[in-house]
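Teaching assistant's notes for section 4

Start the section by putting this record on the projector. Ask students to predict, before seeing the second block, whether Defective in cullin neddylation protein will look compact or extended. Collect guesses on the board.
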Amino acid sequence: MPRSKRRSATEMSSTDDDRYASKRSRNSNSSRRVSRIDEAQSFSQKRCIAWFREYSTPDDPDTLGPEGMEKFCEDVGVEPENVVMLVLAYKMGARQMGFFTRDEWLKGLADMQCDSIQKLQYRLDHLRCLLNDQNVFKAIYRYAYDFARDKDQRSMDMETAKAMLQLLLGKHWPLYSQFSHFLDQSKYKVINKDQWCNILEFSRTIYNDLSNYDVDGAWPVMLDEFVEWLKASRAKSDIS
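Reveal the predicted structure now:
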């Protein structure tokens, strides 16, 4: 095998310099690309506020109201009545349904590191999954009462209460449809917070056949009346 020609020191230096220069250039370009990706992925408060301004009005720049909320939901691709919007409001600590303040917006979205529609859309499944945690669900359920009720009233009106119960329990509580029917024909026009919290506890602990319901327990009268009503309805169905 013929021997390869030995390169001169000058040739080696020139070739190595070119190679190192090319490598430095590639590394520099790679670093700039990584930097741009990190910049796009990192949370920007300025970008988040600018996003908020797309939905507020000049008359009230620090509040996102019902019209802005409708556009926001449309942009994100979620119906306003979707439960994930309630979870988002919970993350923001929003005080009033249909409104986000600038501070609430920043609090919630900074926590989730979202400053754009795309980032929030990416986090929607995570928000939905929070409902699978019983403790988090309980916190969101309790939060929903003060969030949805009229702030001028201590109790929640029945129409709003039924809408929120449908949203939170409708798909998961087998007795929800019967309870909703009971509310329709009952004397109750509002639901107070004690009743609200106990409805969740009832839905989680009482069997569908009501066999473990203690009439002498510390349940609100509303639920005593529901059990009595449901037993009577079932007895009537058995006879017919």
